[in-house]
Amino acid sequence: MYRWTVARVARWAIQAAVEGRTGPATRMMADDVSFDFPGSSSFAASTRTKDEMVAWVERFAALKPDYLVRDVIVTGPPWNTRVAVRLSDRIGDDYNNEGMQYLRMRWGKLISEEVFLDTEKVVEFERRHPEVAPAAARA
Fold this sequence. Notes:
Number of helices: 5
Low-confidence stretches: none
Helix content: 25-40%
CATH class: Alpha Beta
Mean pLDDT: 94
Number of domains: 1
């Protein structure tokens, strides 16, 4: 029952955040949550606070992606829960990607998240749409 509940809450919180409603996900984050998005795009990040992670999620949500959680796998006890999320990500007809999110939780709080996807697709999307990259990243 625990794993089923975590999977349902993870799906709900991720979908809400991608739709721009970051409150549910924010409440689930530890204050010192770590977030890693690899690559060389302006979305590449390695954050270590809740505020930094929320800012990243809000920037991503502003693109209004079609984000589909395809599968969620949960394992481990409440003090060391691991969650794997298979996802599809699309923006219009110009960007499609598939990947994984690896989450670690402790007693219902997100303590870390790593994103794994084809980061070159993100770089190419930014080349075609320089307006999505902050001015500092384009310089």
